[in-house]
Amino acid sequence: MMLFSQAHGLPVLTPSGTDEIGVVRALTVDAAAGRVTHLRVRTGRRAETVLPWEAVHAVGPGAVVVGPAGAPDEVAPHHDLLGRRVLTETGDRHGTVRDVAFDPATGRIEAVRTTLGTLPADRLVGLGDYALVVRAD
Questions:
Q1: pTM above 0.85, yes or no
Q2: 102 forms bridges with which residues in the sheet?
């Protein structure tokens, strides 16, 4: 298990481990599916590359290794999950997202840590501009 905050800023390397593509800027999530779908890599001061999660070969505490991948066919809109407010589907507030635990091998989200406690991934409904929506208790 790894946290989003641990992945942020990691160098992104080619499979040989000798060439750095950039650094992890963010992870794009499909909340309803409960998984990371894309890796967003800062490649320059203002440049960014988006890679499908399937291009990720390994994620560790020191780097992310990616293989060759073309541009993703379709990239879901990106909403930063960290710091996002959390609302239940009935509109009740459940704090804000502090961190997200995920399986680095599969991209599967394990849990969302909020300011009011930890939510299991099976409660995720959707993520938008305003909030992460979760099923009510």
A1: yes
A2: 2, 109
CB of 107 closer than 8 Å to CB of 61 = no
- CATH for 2-66? 2.30.30.240
Q: Do domains 2-66 and 85-134 have the same CATH topology?
A: yes
Q: Name the token pair of 62.
A: 């020191």
Binning pLDDT at 50, 70 and 90, where does residue 110 land?
A: very high
Residue 15 above 60 pLDDT? Answer: yes
Closest CA to 4 of 86, 113, 133: 113
